[in-house]
Amino acid sequence: MTEPRLAVGGLAVTFKSVDGPVAAVRGINLEVARAKTLALVGESGCGKS
User: Fold this and answer.
1) Which of 13, 17, 18, 46 has CB 3.0 to 4.6 Å from 42, enough for a Cys bridge?
2) Which of 9, 13, 16, 40 is nearest to 24 (CA)?
3) What domain range is 18 assigned to?
4) 5: closest CA among 25, 35, 28?
């Protein structure tokens, strides 16, 4: 197999809130192969960025 164009392993994102930390993303793994297209879609304001 060829090396991926993009690889992310074990991604975690935590935000502070008045009630304490909020784990928005935990343990995400992603690989995008060369010459492939990936789209992240969702409602406006849902946190895609």
Assistant:
1) 46
2) 13
3) 1-35
4) 35
- Please, what is the Cα angle at 13 between 20 and 22, to 5 degrees? 20
Closest CA to 32 of 1, 7, 14: 7
- Region of 46 (left: φ > 0; alpha: ψ -120 to 50; beta: rest) is alpha
d(CA 21, CA 4): 33
Sign of the C-alpha dihedral, residues 5, 10, 16, 22?
positive
User: Global pTM?
Assistant: 0.60
As given in the structure block, the two tokens for residue 28 are: 């995400």
Q: Give a yes or no: residue 15 inside a domain.
A: yes
